[in-house]
Amino acid sequence: MTDVTNERREETVGVVGAGRVGQWFVRKLVRAGYEPVVFDVDPKAVAEAIDRGGTAGNHPADVATQADVIVLALPTKADVETVMEGTDGILAILESGQVVIDTGTTPPDVAVHYQKICHERGAGYVDCGITRHGPGASDRGDEPSYTMFVGGDAGDYEQIKPVIEALSNTHEFFEGIGNGHTVKMAVVLRATCRAAMAAEVCEFLSNNAIDPGRVVSLLDWEVPEPYVDPSYFTARGFERAVHTDDGDTEARGFGVDRGARARLETSEWAKDPANALATAHASGSHVPMLTAAFQVVRLTERYGAALTDHDLEFGSTEWRLFHLRSVYRALARPQEEWRRLSRWTDGQD
């Protein structure tokens, strides 16, 4: 049975999830005069949050006993469900006057579900999509400048508005539960389509012996630098994947999940366009560009899986899922890729 012994304080804000975003939240809350109490399944992440000025909670319910506002900074729908309904979850003790803010990558139907439960208890639940590519800049160079899209009941929003203002550079309230995440999906839809277009155009130019950087500069296109690089890093990428004693300390773009079968982890960013596609289909929205761009993401995942099937840890920074041009390179020159790959197999083509 969950022990409810702590007294909630107005200046205390709960943060469940102390990953990259959660750490930034802790820093911003401390700067705004709040006292964040933090829980994460990773003790190292909690320790880092304590170094930033937070205190540790024993589990999600413990966090909720100490704060009227609880911020969820979690990566998946499953994580939100576990934190809300699992052992020592928030719903074990949530009561009237408290509000939960879901800032993760969660489909709108999850927010609808939990708002209903929370409202039955006199508590609140809002969904809050975030992007670091909104207007304005942070006054500190070491952190993002968040724009937040808040969805939910107007009364719940008014209660958590001071916390949202502390966490964001700017925000907008879109009344109606699920609307915050829907706006975020629209932002990701736009970004995914633009990235795929930039990747395809730049690879087309490269394959026809034209430096895409010159075209981008001439026409003043907004294209990320990795897309316009005309070089082809296949050899360097494979060498780094196999030989790790070359003194190269450059960060790798993919992590490797060392489970029963090694697989490259795809970027969490891929969940956003997946949610956007599902919502588009459910609402009867036609999104052909997003559909095509997401297929590129899937091809990237399968290509990475094929590499790890051959016991390679392919992680060159030029192959990040964010840089969709990487898969266009693989599709344009597949034989070169597989010839190199075959060097690390039993000699078969």
Explain what the structure shows.
With 349 residues, the chain is of the alpha/beta class. It has two domains: 12-177, Rossmann fold (3-Layer(aba) Sandwich), CATH 3.40.50; 185-342, N-(1-d-carboxylethyl)-l-norvaline Dehydrogenase, domain 2, CATH 1.10.1040. 48% of the residues lie in helices and 13% in strands. The chain has 14 helices and ten strands. The protein has helices at 20-31, 43-51, 60-66, 77-85, 108-120, 154-167, 179-207, 212-219, 225-228, 234-242, 271-283, 288-309, 325-332, 334-342; strands spanning 12-16, 35-39, 55-56, 69-72, 99-102, 124-131, 147-152, 170-175, 256-257, 263-264. The strands form two sheets. Strands 3-2-1-4-5-6-7-8 form an eight-stranded mixed sheet, sandwiched between helices. Strands 9-10 form a two-stranded antiparallel sheet. The longest helix has 29 residues, at 179-207. It is globular, with a radius of gyration of 22 Å.
State the shape: globular
Strand content: 5-15%
Helical proportion? 40-55%
The CATH top-level class label of the largest domain = Alpha Beta
Counted beta strands: 10
Major sheet: arrangement of strands: 3-2-1-4-5-6-7-8
Estimate nothing, just give the exact number of structural domains: 2
**CATH architectural designation of the largest domain:** 3-Layer(aba) Sandwich
Q: State the CATH superfamily name of the largest domain.
A: NAD(P)-binding Rossmann-like Domain
> Which class do the helix and strand fractions yield?
alpha/beta
CATH topology value of the largest domain: Rossmann fold
* Subunit organisation of the chains: single chain
Distinct helical segment count: 14
What is the terminal-to-terminal distance? 60 Å
Low-confidence runs: 1-5, 232-268, 308-322, 341-349
| Average pLDDT score | 77
Rg over alpha carbons? 22 Å
